[in-house]
Amino acid sequence: MWRREIFGAGRGGRGNPPRPGGRRAAPPNGDPPRGPRFRRVRQALAIVAAIGILGVTGAGLFVWHQYEEMAASLPSVDSLRHYQPPTVSRIYTGDDRLMAELAAERRIYVPITAIPNRVKNAFIAAEDQHFYTHGGVDPLAIVRAEITNLNRPEGRRPIGASTITQQVARNMVLDNNSLTMQRKIQEALLAVRIEQTLPKDKILEIYLNGIYLGEGAYGVAAAAQTYFNKHLDQLTNAEAAFLGALPKSPSNYNPYRHPDAATRHRNWVLGRMAEIGAISRADADAGQQEPLIPHGAPRFGPLPNSEWFGSEVRRQLVAQYGEDRAMQGGLDVHTSLDPDLQNNATQILRDGLMTYDHSHGGWRGAVTRITLSSKASEDEWVAALKAVKPPPGMLDRWRLAVTLSSATGRVGWIEDGAPHTATLAGKDQAWMHVYRSSHVGDVVMIEPQAEGGVALRQVPKVEGALVTMDVRTGRVLAMVGGWSFRESQFNRATQALRQPGSSFKPFVYLDAMEQGVPPSEKFEDAPVSYGDWHPQNYEKDNWGPTTLHDALRESRNLVTIRLAAHLGMKSVADMAIKAGLVAEMPHVLPAALGAVETTVLRETAAYASIASGGHIVPPSLIDTVQDRDGNVIWKPPGLKLGTMMQAPPPPPDATPADPNAPPADPSATPPANPTVGVSAPATPPPGSLEVPVVDDQRPRIASEDSAFQIVTMMQDVIKRGTGTLAGVGIDRDIAGKTGTSQDFHDAWFAGFSPDIVTVVWVGFDSPQSLGKNEDGGRIAGPIWNRMMKVALASRPRLSFRAPDDIVLARYDTGRLMAVDAFKNGQVPGMSVALHGFGAGTEALTAADTGAENVSDSETDMADAPAQGLPSPGQAPNGAATGNAAGNGGPVAQSGQPAQQPAQTGDIGVGGLY
Hints:
Layout: H1 2-9, H2 39-73, E1 89-92, E2 98-102, E3 106-107, H3 117-127, H4 139-150, H5 164-174, H6 181-197, H7 200-210, E4 217-218, H8 220-228, H9 237-245, H10 259-275, H11 281-289, H12 307-328, E5 332-335, H13 339-359, E6 368-369, H14 378-386, E7 399-405, E8 410-415, E9 418-423, H15 426-432, E10 442-448, E11 454-457, E12 463-470, E13 476-480, H16 505-514, E14 522-525, E15 544-547, H17 548-553, H18 557-567, H19 569-578, H20 600-611, E16 622-626, E17 632-634, E18 639-646, E19 672-675, E20 689-696, H21 704-720, E21 735-740, E22 746-752, E23 756-763, H22 776-793, E24 807-812, E25 817-822, H23 858-861
Parallel strand pairs: 1-5, 3-4
Antiparallel strand pairs: 1-2, 5-16, 6-10, 7-8, 7-10, 8-9, 10-11, 12-13, 12-23, 14-15, 16-17, 18-19, 18-20, 21-22, 22-23, 24-25
Helix pairs in contact: 3-9, 3-10, 5-6, 5-7, 9-10, 10-11, 13-22, 16-18, 16-19, 16-21
């Protein structure tokens, strides 16, 4: 009762006394009686509470549903257990110099144990100072960031509170940098999962190797090289702190563009490092006083002059492993390139092309022309010359110069920022004025000379290619694919299909040796025609019966045709295909003269097969490929290293050797019991030593005896034949062959020593004549000569090793005294009638030559010398090919060629010289 009175009295001061029985008296104005005080308030509170509970429950259920959906859609973090980010692949030369890098992202992966503590602490202090204590998300950092963001100026990006683990989740798993709540929640959930899956050090390792730090550098190791040209263990506290400052904004803290901002943020990181106890305050103060001066290594490009080689290695890697693994797999690729030999090869080929260009035409005119006053000052022409861009193909050692006096040939150029002047030599001025005259203001290319003058230069239009390879292993030591990789990346050593001309002929003769035909065998060197095809020798003369030795030495076309007809073109084609010279070949006689297409690299490998004793020698640019863990995943097949038991030398008291006996061949294999991978079948003598030996598992194209017979014949090509210019000044055992295609479109020289093979090609990209009588011996031979002199200079003197069952004999070929190699059963110097002497040629028709597809004149042939040949393996009109008498064809009983029609003067499709 007392509570009701009090409460009642409290309503607006209108307290009414209660009525008997506890009921409230009716108000005097007749209003209905009021209910209990605060009943409505309690009802409202109850409703609000119920709604709140329902809302919270609903919201909780909704949030839980969203969480379940989001969690279910999150990517797995298991991939981080074996995380391998895109890492630069490196290509090394044969002496382990870095030649090139293949990378979509420049990153050097370093394990956490190799990252110094100062580098780790710099990033922890700057990005996540509680890294080792939180569980993936740092609540205190989130609160601090939100408070800071409330007071941030309008338009400024809000600061984040992402931990290092969250950054790993965002960059390595989500790969999403959008500023949305959903992404932030996903990032936090993934961070927690990562912390439950990986140890802290592994998370930090992934972060430090994956973070982008500007200037194209990914990870701390690449950044240390990019900004300071140092390894991680060489960084100072200040340098490590600078790297730690970069993740927030690499572009805004770039030391080259924003040095002040970069220094301020570095100093802030040093202070944070002192706060967390990573360094002392004194060290932090000392680091803050250190100037920020980046000493970045220059941008690494391919090793000079190695671009042709490196591009071919890259192509092979992409073909074998795919672009992603080749470019981002962290492969270590060790190649066969000899950098010094490569530099020499580049210079030698360029010199040869310049020599040809200089002697086959005059100066083609100025690069451009700048306007100068009549008495131009030095400042005037220097400013004008600086604005001129060098043309493609201009070499680095050349300079752009402006003609200051056309009468005296005085030119001016800029060297190391300073102006220089000189006068062109008289011979250069004469060359310049062969077709054109120079004018003041002409911009020309010159090369400063050591004696102080300058030489006039121009980019040749003729192109060339060169490959040098190890005979035994097939390791490519040097490769030049043209004049300038910068001007054209087309590799003429591997991509240009050109006719080898007469450099194909050794494989016809090798096939003859394999079929038992001796080098002294004679074939008729006389006119021959098949339908409309009237081939001739280069000299347009005929020698009559001619030995194969003389025919190869002097590159006689008619003997080669008769020999190929005797052997059968299918057999010749099979030999060329096995050697790798061609992938396929038509069975028609012009192909025996080189009317096929090959590349410089293919021909180099084919000639190596002859030089190596008949083994197939696949060219190899790559020695080994290692994965990012250092495991060898590829090496060239064919050669294996085994062991053999070598007998001990005879005791001192053994019977002395016969003083009249010939000296032992030092290259001969010592008597031993081979144990290549297996035990020797016989017990080795006491005291035998186990020594390494190469087990050559590569197939053969010919026997060692046949290969040596061709080598002996090709030695005389250089000594007394078409290749004499290639042998000038070389006092080593060398062998080779010239090659000139129809209408002088291609000039080749291919040759070898016992351990090195080099092939040189010169021609125009769009086939055209190099000039009358400009054959392989004159143009490519001198280039080959210079290259082999350099290659052999650092190598021991070796001789071609004769097989044990070969007999070397001197005999009269009918034209000179020659030395040839003869097999068992062959009579040195003898020639016998082969099924009617030069059999097969009389029975052949135009169908066996492709003559109906060959032009009638040499001029016409220049347009399309080999375009009309039938497809490989099929003769025109379905006729049989290679119908030699030895293979079942009819034979002329007289043993002499049938009467031929008068010659039309055609040289014929194929090799000339």
